[in-house]
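Margin note from the TA: students keep mixing up input and output lines. Inputs are the sequences; the output is the structure of the whole complex. Example:
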Amino acid sequence: MTPQSDTGHPSATAALPIGTPRHHLMIFAGLLVLLLLAPTVLYPVFLMKVLCFALFASALNLLLGFGGLLSFGHAAFFGASSYVAAHAAKVWGFNPEIAILLGVAASAVLGLGIGVLAIRRQGIYFAMVTLAFAQMVYFFALQAPFTGGEDGIQAVPRGKLFGLIDLSSDRTLYFVVLAIVFSALLLIYRIIHSPFGQVLKAIRDNEPRSISLGYKVNRYKLAVFVMSATLAGLAGATKAIVFQLASLTDVYWTMSGEVVLMTLLGGMGTVFGPLIGAAAIVTMQNYFAGFGAWVTVLQGVIFVISVLLFREGIIGVLARLLKKPL
Amino acid sequence: MFELLGIPPQALFGQLLLGLINGSFYALLSLGLAVIFGLLNIINFSHGAQYMMGAFVAWMLLTYGGINYWWALLIVPLVVGASGVVIERLMISRLYHLDHLYGLLLTFGLALIIQGLFRNQYGVSGLPYSIPTELAGGTNLGFMFLPNYRGWVIVASVVVCFATWFAIEKTRLGAYLRAATENPTLVGAFGINVPRMITLTYGFGVALAALAGVLAAPIYSVNPNMGADLIIVVFAVVVIGGMGSILGAILTGFGLGIVEGLTRVIYPEGSSVVIFVIMAIVLLVKPAGLFGRTQ
């Protein structure tokens, strides 16, 4: 990728300093308080959906915003993991935590397989390769004997966490999902601010220079790809337990586009952007659910506007106004 | 009757024909993508939606205006191509100084809009478009029965692909185009209006997609999702062929269509993923694609 000023890459405004700025800690703390209180005001299932997609978008953002790699096939990891978790919970009768872990493991393995091949190409080719592999996963989900074809895997039992805590109550499950997602977000934050994250940003901003500095660029790319796939899988598996469903929509390529939209709208390469983007898009989908295909049109319009006029995203603009990286 | 690989010949040739038909569309669409990519450096994600528009505009012409297939072949590419010109002028031209990824994202958004609008208007069930009377029926080739329309699609696709290849590789205009992809500033300095050439190239690429849509209308039912899945396969075709060459796009398109048809005979479950498997292998062996130039 060429220098930031030329590309207009949104990271230009959001280059994070090394170390943890205090205001980030404050935002995380405020966010946690807000999310702990949220179910008293908002419907827990809606909140859980937002949380799952916030994690999914943050996972993509780790790859796209900080690694400079646009994966257009992240639904593969999200969906495959949700199928594995749903199958493990329903057919094999595992506890939810084991089911989720199996889903995550599956997406990690899948991420390694696709990543090894995809990082052989760059830029838009990379996007097309990931997209094509994701479509392969979609056809697998459509045709394999245990995925339920068009119906998906329905009526997945939520089960008991560690065999003790009954998750059938939305409110109990909400706090479990919150714990999962919040820890994952902190992990992503930690990755971004580690030396590994710094190298990643160096590769994003100038790959040839990173190579000449002696970094094994492809290893870093593959590592971040697998991490991103794994975290996307965590989001997918959690969603399968929440909605008790693994369906074809989760693996279809429009889902990959949706998560890119969330990241773009919130602000690529920002810490909190994907969360806002996910919340905005999920809210919009819930609000306009009755309008059928107009939701697609509206998403398209948001996409076009974001690309043409609003490349920094919501948080990117906010960060510029506040003159602080967010 | 003799058998090949334990498969009755009618089934084998039938699937080969189907593969060749699919290949015609892969070739036309990946050719359009290659033409656009060549000069604009943009992956036109709305290509599938523009192909769908082609089929729909043909259907509208017939249903609302009584304009038949042969006129549609001429009018539709012009109309849809003109919409491409407008899109290029209003939107895509603002992105050239940015990372290529933004072009992909913009055209993806456009695809969502176009598909959503058609879905709102016409639903997803699909509309019939009958084969023009001149091409109804079929011909018995001795070893198989060839529906005339399908034969026509293959011939038309080959002719259009060859004409495009000829125009780009062998004519003066094509030489300007190729020069502009290498060095737009220098070509502009020779007094050639490069921005207009870029706009028209995008329009031409879109027109190719629309033409494919008209050809497809009598074969597949006309519906808003017809381009959505196809475009992903075409992307895979493009990755396999490599974006560098026009000829690569054409040959890979036809070749993969045939491979897909053969797979459907030998191992039907694998037919929808065989192209992606080939893509994986090609990426391992020759990451730049079969006909691609290494960067």
